From TrEMBL:
<keyword id="KW-0347">Helicase</keyword>
<keyword id="KW-0547">Nucleotide-binding</keyword>
<protein>
    <recommendedName>
        <fullName>Helicase C-terminal domain-containing protein</fullName>
    </recommendedName>
</protein>
<dbReference type="InterPro" id="IPR001650">
    <property type="entry name" value="Helicase_C-like"/>
</dbReference>
<dbReference type="InterPro" id="IPR050079">
    <property type="entry name" value="DEAD_box_RNA_helicase"/>
</dbReference>
<feature type="domain" description="Helicase C-terminal">
    <location>
        <begin position="53"/>
        <end position="172"/>
    </location>
</feature>
<dbReference type="GO" id="GO:0003724">
    <property type="term" value="F:RNA helicase activity"/>
</dbReference>
<dbReference type="GO" id="GO:0005524">
    <property type="term" value="F:ATP binding"/>
</dbReference>
<dbReference type="GO" id="GO:0005829">
    <property type="term" value="C:cytosol"/>
</dbReference>
<dbReference type="InterPro" id="IPR027417">
    <property type="entry name" value="P-loop_NTPase"/>
</dbReference>
<keyword id="KW-0378">Hydrolase</keyword>
<dbReference type="Pfam" id="PF00271">
    <property type="entry name" value="Helicase_C"/>
</dbReference>
<dbReference type="GO" id="GO:0016787">
    <property type="term" value="F:hydrolase activity"/>
</dbReference>
<keyword id="KW-0067">ATP-binding</keyword>
Length: 172
């Protein structure tokens, strides 16, 4: 940051935050990361925002991460009612149900998989193009594992994360 830009931030901003991006990053080179800010008082619009993203822009090859099993199940129902081909994957499901959901997503029977962090590690699904974080995870390591489901093996991918207007500290 040049001295001129630093002076401008000192004059124009209240409590500015510096965000440093290191060339030594933990995410794939082919990953395009996008962050959608949710303004204070608009937290209740999160489900509608995700539904709009999925129906309008990313209706296929998408993983939607939620914070809780209850929210994963809720979004599974909501997106199904919107006519999307969706499966859910979380810890309340039996192993058989998890494997069936995963198989349906991999073979294209389902286009969207709503999941919790149970799906953030160890899954290799080459067709995943987009990862949407309905809520940001509690730490950077979980974020890296979630977005690591796309842009694998030199391919391109996208992550979209919805967050409050104040970014969490681990993003910096």
């Amino acid at each position: 940051m040049t001295d001129t830009v630093q002076e401008l931030t000192d004059v124009a901003l209240t409590k500015p935050m510096k965000i440093f991006i290191s060339s030594n990053t933990d995410v794939a080179d082919g990953l395009e990361q996008q962050f959608v800010r949710i303004r204070p008082g608009r937290e209740g619009d999160r489900e509608a925002m995700v539904a709009a993203l999925l129906t309008r822009s990313f209706p296929r090859f998408t993983l939607l991460f939620t914070q809780t099993r209850k929210m994963a199940h809720r979004m599974h129902i909501l997106l199904g009612l919107l006519g999307l081909k969706v499966v859910e994957l979380h810890g309340s499901m039996s192993q058989t149900a998890r494997l069936e959901a995963l198989a349906n997503f991999k073979n294209g029977t389902a286009h969207i998989m709503v999941c919790t962090d149970v799906a953030a590690r160890g899954l290799d699904i080459p067709s995943v193009r987009t990862v949407i974080n309905m809520t940001l995870p509690n730490n950077y390591k979980s974020y890296v594992h979630r977005v690591g489901r796309t842009a694998r093996a030199g391919k391109q991918g996208r992550s979209i994360s919805l967050g409050l207007s104040r970014p969490r500290k681990y993003i910096s």
